[in-house]
Design brief:
Nucleotidyltransferase, domain 5; 5 strands; single chain; 362 residues; alpha/beta; 5-stranded mixed beta sheet
């Protein structure tokens, strides 16, 4: 493997790269290249930069070398394709590209939430294929939206350190469980039988259904082994939660402490739950920050359950639904695979900080 080029940034270059990263009008490509160089200036290896930015390691090396040879100009402009330099925009095209990007990111069409290629092309009086090409080149996708929620918990950092600490440095002579309820799972029966999958055609199912009741799954995921303790109940009050805690406690060796990671649902903090915890000193509850369900690994198991068993399931009764859920848990526990937490507290805080900063400028 060739030696990595050392990147040293002047104050002027660093400020310009940081400006590119923060400016919403900067193209996706230039933002990516700027991030590569800012990380490289910290002596970060190419493979770590590639992993953090989710890109190919060869791309990291290419832009690192390009900056070393040509400076900022080397990353601000792409090398011409082919020997004839025929891909260069005219002045008019460059202005039009800039207008397309500005309108796409800053304006909205009348009567709609986002632009389409044909709608924007019609307003500008150009061919929609040119709009499409510009969008592809800079990575604009107006039809897509990503969902997020930044926690406003006043004790966010404290709770984050507590939970991530359990994942990355679990205490000795203890077992860590991620506990939660998947409530109101519907037993849905389709109004007509679907067609099976076959070569050239996916399986089908009717869009309408009949509701046959609901159930709630209480689940505790062992973070070390990946095994799941699960119980289906009709309701999800503090009575059911406390009964499930007792089940988990009984099924765990008496020589081990129990650390249970839970969310801030009111039933988890009920007075009767607190009193039971006072009598059972080996059981400890750890609360994740509000609006941070991603921090509870059992949510990943719920995702698998939905994807592999519930979404396409047909259930004529709650009993059938609960049997299917129990069957899925039993199959999972025959060959359990733990979910491995990899992010440190500092990495998470940095990402949350960037999100809060971005929201502050809106």
């Amino acid at each position: 493997m060739p030696a990595q080029v050392k990147i040293t940034l002047s104050d002027k270059d660093r400020k310009q790269l940081e400006k590119y990263v923060k400016n919403r009008k900067t193209s996706v490509r230039l933002v990516e290249r700027s991030k590569i160089l800012l990380l490289a200036s910290q002596n970060t290896p190419n493979y770590k930069i590639a992993k953090e930015l989710n890109i190919d390691v060869n791309k990291v090396g290419r832009w690192r070398n390009r900056f070393a040879d040509k400076g900022l100009l080397g990353i601000e402009k792409d090398l011409p394709r082919g020997s004839n330099h025929g891909g260069k925009d005219s002045v008019e095209q460059a202005k039009l590209r800039s207008k397309i990007i500005n309108m796409t990111t800053q304006d909205r069409p009348k009567g709609s939430t986002h632009w389409t290629t044909r709608g924007l092309a019609k307003v500008l009086g150009i061919n929609h294929s040119f709009v499409n090409r510009v969008w592809r080149e800079v990575g604009l996708k107006p039809h897509l939206t990503k969902y997020f929620k930044v926690s406003n918990d006043s004790n966010f950092e404290e709770k984050l350190q507590d939970v991530v600490g359990l994942y990355l440095s679990p205490p000795e002579n203890a077992v860590i469980f991620c506990v939660d309820e998947k409530s109101s799972i519907q037993a849905l029966d389709r109004t007509q039988p679907g067609l099976p999958i076959k070569p050239g055609r996916c399986g089908t199912m009717t869009h309408d259904y009949k509701r046959n009741g609901t159930s709630t799954l209480f689940a505790a995921l062992n973070t070390l082994t990946g095994e799941v303790i699960g119980q289906c109940k009709k309701r999800h009050r503090h009575q059911e939660f406390l009964a499930f805690l007792k089940t988990v406690e009984k099924q765990t060796s008496k020589d081990l402490e129990l650390h249970l990671i839970v969310d801030n649902y009111a039933t988890h903090k009920h007075e009767k739950v607190k009193n039971w915890l006072k009598r059972n000193k080996r059981v400890h509850l750890h609360f994740i920050p509000t609006s941070s369900s991603w921090l509870n690994l059992v949510e990943r198991f719920f995702g698998l359950l939905t994807e592999k068993q519930l979404r396409r399931g047909v259930f004529t009764s709650v009993k059938e639904l609960e049997e299917a859920i129990t069957g899925f848990i039993d199959a999972h526990n025959k060959a359990p695979k733990p979910f491995v937490w990899t992010k440190s507290v500092d990495e998470i805080l940095a990402k949350v900080g960037r999100a809060r900063q971005a929201l502050a400028f809106q």
